Amino acid sequence: xxxxxxxxxxxxxxxxxxxxxxxxxxxxxxxxxxxxxxxxxxxxxxxxxxxxxxxxxxxxxxxxxxxxxxxxxxxxxxxxxxxxxxxxxxxxxxxxxxxxxxxxxx
Amino acid sequence: xxxxxxxxxxxxxxxxxxxxxxxxxxxxxxxxxxxxxxxxxxxxxxxxxxxxxxxxxxxxxxxxxxxxxxxxxxxxxxxxxxxxxxxxxxxxxxxxxxxxxxxxxxxxxxxxxxxxxxxxxxx
Lengths: 106, 123
Prior knowledge:
The structure holds two protein chains of two kinds. By secondary structure, chain A is mainly beta. Chain A has strands at 4-7, 10-13, 19-25, 33-38, 45-49, 53-54, 62-67, 70-75, 84-90, 96-97, 101-105. In chain A, the strands form two sheets. In chain A, strands 2, 4, 5, 6, 9, 10 and 11 form a seven-stranded mixed β-sheet that branches. A four-stranded antiparallel β-sheet of chain A has the order 1-3-8-7, with no helix packed on it. Chain A is globular, with a radius of gyration of 13 Å. Chain B is mainly beta.
């Protein structure tokens, strides 16, 4: 089974900060990785698919990068509405979510 | 517009079988590349993918739940179903169904989600 490790588990940042979230796979998943955002009490929302493709309607301040085992979600300028938990998800072999990074405002 | 809605028993007893229905609109489960997936989330915890069913009838289950899961579909009525056998308290969670798209041999994602249905396993 492929394990997905996200770090940090909790991140505090200020409005306007550039924020970077990490996701590491236990083995090579090429670029088969998506990112989801989940706000409190809501269903998850797809942000990024296939590592770096922005889902329709998602603000361009969100971007994804990486390949192999190391992946990153970047928010170029943090906005108050970005407070949420972010999950990475691999679909190279089976389907596995990471444990999530909770992003809060400092 | 794609919408999905889960329905289920709310509460059930340990060792019983959980049966969930996902009723959807805006797409057909007979269209190439379309699927419905089930994902669950215990309160305050992370997401766990459970199973997926595809336009061609193929199914894919989370190996960690072994043979406890059965996913099926009724294409004519735009519904998908999940059964989980021998439930225990660890199966208490919010269960989501999600429209799943696969194309180009590289892209697969859950892009539309239901609101989720809370299931409690308790005696």
